[in-house]
Amino acid sequence: MTKSLMTVKEFIESKYRSLGGMVPAHEVETVVIASELDPDAPLTSETLATAERAFVKRIPEVLLQPTSISELGVSISRAGQDALRLYYRTKCRELGIENLLDGADRPKVTIY
């Protein structure tokens, strides 16, 4: 019996799980739609590259979400802001994606 390949959707869910906390279904859908991939397609070298790029592009949105939520004695946490920013910076450089979080490309203003 051969093991089936991970699907695109499963890969994206695993990327969100690696950040800690819950896997938001709407975020998974957003990544799939942005990458124009079939969520049930097997993960291949081509679909992996596309799905990973789409996931990394969503990280600035993830940074806007709270790092932890507590309600009725239940607490859910995800990776800290600094760790997520470092991961984002590294993956942008690795994948050739524009880093939207670093202000190096912003024009400098001098006030006299």
Describe what is shown at a glance.
With 112 residues, the protein is mainly alpha-helical.
Q: What do these coordinates show?
A:
The protein is 49% helix and 7% strand. The longest helix has 15 residues, at 81-95. It contains five helices and two strands. The protein has 112 residues and is mainly alpha-helical. α1 crosses α2 (25-35), α1 packs across α3 and α2 crosses α3. β1 (68-71) and β2 (74-77) form a beta hairpin.
Summary keywords:
112 residues, mainly alpha, two-stranded antiparallel ribbon, 5 helices, globular
Helix percent band: 40-55%
- Across the major sheet, the strand order is 1-2
Largest sheet composition: 2 strands, antiparallel
> What would you call the shape?
globular
Q: How far is the first residue's CA from the last residue's CA?
A: 73 Å
Question: What class, by secondary structure content?
Answer: mainly alpha
Figure out the total of helices: 5
String of helices and strands: HHHHEEH
List segments where confidence is low: pLDDT < 50 over at least 5 consecutive residues. Answer: none
Q: Give the overall pLDDT as a whole number.
A: 80
What gyration radius follows from the Cα positions, in whole Å? 17 Å
Number of E strands? 2
Q: Strand share of the residues?
A: 5-15%
